[in-house]
Amino acid sequence: MIKHLLYIQLIIIVVLGWYLVDKVAFREESMTSLEAILQVAKDNRMELEKVLYCYQKNSTDSLKYRAACFLIENMPFYTYSDGEQLDNYKSYYIWLKKSRGKTPQQVADSVKNVYGAINELEKRCDIMEIDSAYLCHNIDWAFKVWQEQPWGKNISFETFCEYLLPYRIGDEPLTYWREIYYEKYNSLLDSLRMSDSLDIEDPVVAANYLISKLPDKSYYYTSVTPYPFGHIGPEYVQYLSGTCREVTDFAMYLFRALGIPCAIDFVPVRSYINAGHFWLTTWNKDGEEYMTDFPQKLRPVRKNWWYRWDDSSKVYRYTFSVNGELYEQIAKYGEDIYPFWSLPKFMDVTHEYGYNFKKELVIPLEKQYKTKRSGKIAYLCVSDRDRWTPVDWTEYNAGCLSFQYVRNGSFMRVASYENGALCFLTDPFYVDKQNGEICYYPAGKEKEDVILYAKCDIGRENMYRDRMIGGVFEGSNHPNFSQKDTLFIIQGRPGRLNTTVKSYSDKAYRYLRYFGPPKSACNISEVAFYEKDDTVALSGKIIGTPGCYQHDGTHEYTNVFDGKTWTSFDYFEATGGWAGLDLGRKICVDRIVYTPRNRDNYVRPDDVYELFYCDRDWKSAGKIKATADSLVFRDIPVNTVLLLRNHTRGLDERIFIYENGTQLWK
Question: What's the rounded Cα separation, in Å, for the pair 369 and 76?
Answer without folding.
Answer: 41
